[in-house]
Design a protein that fits this description.
With 408 residues, the protein is α/β, with parallel strands linked by helices. It is built from 15 helices and 13 strands.
């Protein structure tokens, strides 16, 4: 059985001896043909398991239930995790230095091609924009969104410059590109004149075991941990960055709730980003309203947090996919979002929509707060629609992209 492999010697690049695993089934695709041996570079997965982490984990977890022939290279801290996730895969811990981003990017160009050669990989999958330029074999790159080009003001100048360059490089050098939505594919084609015949769409999925309709006990536990007691609340969950439009949400919540009896609190959960307008918006909140910023929540608390909210509000200016919306839907929450980019592909008719300005968000929030039947209908419809987005389907789309890369 595949396990964690690595050379214990303190070298700058992991050295390993690739061995044939006789217990592994011969990989096949849905068409019955042999599939390629694929090296998935999971070294960019952050420790907090944010969006890119959930994507990589979701795809690898689903590929583990296929006959895919995988090698997973990852941070040393993740080696045991991926070995448990896919016992048939060969897991290669990278050198300790790649825990730091500059070292990881340098190693991607030098160490990763060496690992690919040593394990006999036929295809390399780089799941987060960047790629090795001299891999010596086909490379598939995932480009998650095009907002670095279409909404540059929503990103820091350093981050925007880096990811715009990485995106252009991937479109020029990768054998195939994967996007998580048709909207992202179309934006890349429109803005960067990308070749549509080299782009595959693979929707994200949602783990229905992790994100599920919570019990009352789960909701109560989260409310207690947040110090909410019996107070109702509106929920937001994501990194607090400009693209997520949090200042407009804060001001819309004030407009919609300031004059209500027993007004709901606003809970802004997620990692601290770089939106310097949030503090100013919160400073304007009347003293009788309550806003909480708990930071990261326990992963096991997310269904209770999302499913226990009156409304999950996500008034983003645009997303490559919109995983927080899908996870809220799977948790049985009524969702309010915007009709921007990929979000209608995810939400369909099962979520409520608003334009992102504070006045529009306030009007939409008020309408939902005044209509419990509508909230219940959205909660049920959202959960039902979430069942259509599976990591198994995403894995099949990835397998097809790998096969196309090998024959391109």
């Amino acid at each position: 059985m595949g396990g964690v492999r690595g050379d214990p010697r303190p070298t700058g690049v992991v050295s390993l001896r690739a061995e044939h695993n006789p217990s592994r089934k011969e990989p096949t695709l849905s068409g019955g043909t042999s599939g390629p041996r694929v090296l998935v570079d999971a070294t960019a997965v952050p420790a907090d398991r944010g969006g890119v982490g959930r994507y990589v984990d979701g795809v690898i977890g689903a590929l583990a239930h296929t006959d895919a022939d995988l090698v997973i290279v990852c941070q040393r801290a993740d080696a045991e995790r991926y070995s448990r996730m896919d016992a048939q895969a060969e897991v290669v811990p990278g050198p300790a230095a790649i825990a730091h981003r500059p070292a990881r990017l340098a190693w991607e160009q030098t160490g990763l091609p060496l690992v690919a050669q040593q394990v006999g990989a036929q295809v390399v999958h780089s799941p987060h924009y960047t790629m090795p330029l001299r891999a010596g074999r086909p490379v598939v790159v995932t480009i998650h969104d095009a907002t670095f080009f279409t909404e540059p003001e929503m990103h820091t100048s350093v981050k925007g410059t880096f990811f715009r360059s990485a995106t252009r490089t991937a479109l020029r050098r990768a054998t195939r590109v994967i996007t998580p939505s048709k909207a992202t594919r179309d934006e890349i084609i429109r803005v960067l004149d990308a070749d549509p015949t080299r782009i595959d769409v693979a929707y994200h999925g949602v783990d229905q075991g992790t994100f599920h309709v919570p019990s009352q006990a789960e909701k109560d536990r989260v409310a207690a941990r947040l110090g909410l007691g019996d107070q109702p609340y509106l929920a937001f969950l994501s990194t607090l960055e400009p693209r997520k439009n949090v200042p407009s949400l804060v001001r819309a919540w004030v407009r919609a709730c300031a004059d209500r009896d027993n007004p709901p609190a606003l809970v802004l959960a997620g990692g601290a980003g770089w939106d310097d307008q949030i503090d100013g918006a919160i400073a304007e909140v009347p003293s009788h309203l309550r806003v909480l910023r708990p930071g990261y929540l326990r992963f096991t608390d997310l269904p209770g947090f999302l499913g226990g909210a009156l409304v999950v509000a996500y008034p983003s200016h645009g997303e490559g996919f919109g995983l927080p919306v899908l996870e809220a839907m799977a948790s049985g929450a009524p969702v309010l979002t915007t009709p921007r980019l990929s979000l209608p592909e995810v939400g369909g008719d099962a979520v409520a929509y608003t334009e992102p300005d504070p006045e529009s968000v306030a009007t939409a929030l008020s309408a939902l707060l005044d209509d419990p039947d509508r909230r219940a209908q959205l909660a049920a419809a959202g959960h039902e629609r979430s069942l259509e987005f599976t990591w198994a389907a995403s894995a099949e789309a990835h397998l097809a992209a790998y096969a196309r890369a090998l024959t391109s």
